Task: inverse folding
């Protein structure tokens, strides 16, 4: 069983990008709540580095308000205070305590901070990656958290070049090794807007993948079930069903 999924990798290998048709994504934004996001409140109570970051950003917001300069500050200050080393399959608490992050945990933290300061944004889930887009009037800013130096992309040409990378990789990768075999179910390309809650689900989905690769299908299934509560998507549902079948077979 382990051989089938040994190399299973979903998100956040820097440079490994795949997605669906960019033009099919019609941008719609939600209005952010003026109240402090619950995640921000929890992180302030749990993490000294996050509290330090938050205090800096509060002062920046007094100076810059809802501006492109403030979004830039959120991105780069977060890397200064929290995001120190890329590590696959991390949770938000890993960034808060150890400085380890990947595209899901990093994007989740950035998204919650943006929400707290009232910015309109959307999180984009692709087949293998997650990134953020922030609306600034008629302009969009793209935030690629796994690139500490160049991941803040304000230039429209650079944004287009970034998004084109998804189209070039489309169809070149598969989610499960089993899908290489004829007759096996294929994983459809993904390029869709998701919510903060969905980002939480993707964190748990990554943990399910991690534990499956570590030969712990029970823990993997438990994380997959939890992931579904936050992000009820086809691939998480299919993976959960697969794990349930494997556990049933193992118990015979």
Result:
């Amino acid at each position: 069983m382990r051989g089938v999924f040994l190399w299973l990798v979903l998100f956040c290998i820097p440079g490994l990008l795949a997605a669906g048709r960019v033009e099919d994504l019609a941008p719609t934004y939600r209005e952010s709540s003026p109240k402090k996001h619950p995640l921000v409140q929890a992180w302030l109570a749990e993490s000294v580095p996050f509290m330090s970051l938050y205090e800096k950003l509060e002062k920046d917001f007094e100076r810059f308000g809802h501006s492109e300069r403030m979004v830039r500050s959120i991105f780069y200050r977060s890397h200064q205070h929290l995001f120190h080393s890329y590590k696959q399959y991390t949770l938000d608490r890993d960034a808060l305590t150890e400085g380890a992050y990947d595209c899901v945990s990093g994007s989740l933290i950035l998204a919650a901070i943006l929400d707290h300061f009232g910015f309109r944004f959307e999180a984009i889930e692709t087949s293998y990656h997650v990134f953020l887009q922030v609306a600034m009037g008629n302009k969009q800013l793209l935030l690629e958290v796994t690139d500490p130096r160049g991941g803040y992309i304000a230039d429209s040409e650079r944004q287009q070049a970034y998004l084109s990378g998804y189209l070039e990789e489309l169809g070149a990768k598969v989610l499960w090794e089993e899908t290489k075999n004829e007759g096996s179910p294929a994983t459809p390309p993904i390029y869709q807007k998701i919510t903060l809650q969905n980002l939480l689900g993707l964190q748990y989905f990554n943990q399910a993948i991690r534990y499956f690769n570590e030969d712990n299908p029970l823990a993997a299934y438990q994380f997959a079930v939890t992931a579904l509560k936050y992000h009820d998507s086809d691939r998480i549902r299919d993976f959960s069903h697969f794990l349930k079948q494997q556990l049933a077979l193992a118990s015979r």
Summary: Strands lie at 85-86, 100-101, 121-126, 130-136, 139-143, 152-153, 191-194. The chain has two domains: 26-169, 195-252.
